[in-house]
Amino acid sequence: MSQNSINLTGPSGHPVRVTVGFDRPLSEIFSNVLPIKDDDPTDYSSVVLASFPTVDELAATFEALKMPLPSALLDTVRLDETFGAGNVVRTFDADGTLIQQDVF
């Protein structure tokens, strides 16, 4: 499984941690959104532990939530899916620049 995390501002203005990636055993793209602070009133159930058939659908879902994912992060998920990447954890900054990568 590849895990690509980024901190974004949620639709309510509160910070959230978004993790998206490719689950190699299930052959699907997934997302998980968690509020960074407990006082965020937004319901993220539509994308918490959700799966998507394509990266474009993942991107569209986050666009609709007013939390667009940077193109560099989306391109990374596309490559993960194409090459069946697994056992990698990456952290991106808000503009999509890779900050850290750990391969296990």
Quick synopsis:
This protein is α+β, with helices and mostly antiparallel strands and 104 residues long. The chain has helices spanning 55-64, 71-83, and strands spanning 2-9, 15-23, 28-35, 50-52, 88-92, 98-103.
Tell me what you see in this structure.
The chain is an alpha+beta fold. It contains 2 helices and 6 strands; from the N terminus they run E-E-E-E-H-H-E-E. A hairpin with a 4-residue loop joins strand 2 (15-23) and strand 3. The radius of gyration is 13 Å and the shape is globular.
Global morphology: globular
Largest sheet: 6 strands, mixed
Number of helices: 2
Quaternary assembly: single chain
Q: Residue ranges: pLDDT <50 for 5 or more in a row?
A: none
Primary descriptors:
104 residues; alpha+beta; six-stranded mixed sheet; globular
Which helices and strands, and how do they pair?
Elements: E1 2-9, E2 15-23, E3 28-35, E4 50-52, H1 55-64, H2 71-83, E5 88-92, E6 98-103
Parallel strand pairs: 1-5
Antiparallel strand pairs: 1-2, 2-3, 3-4, 5-6
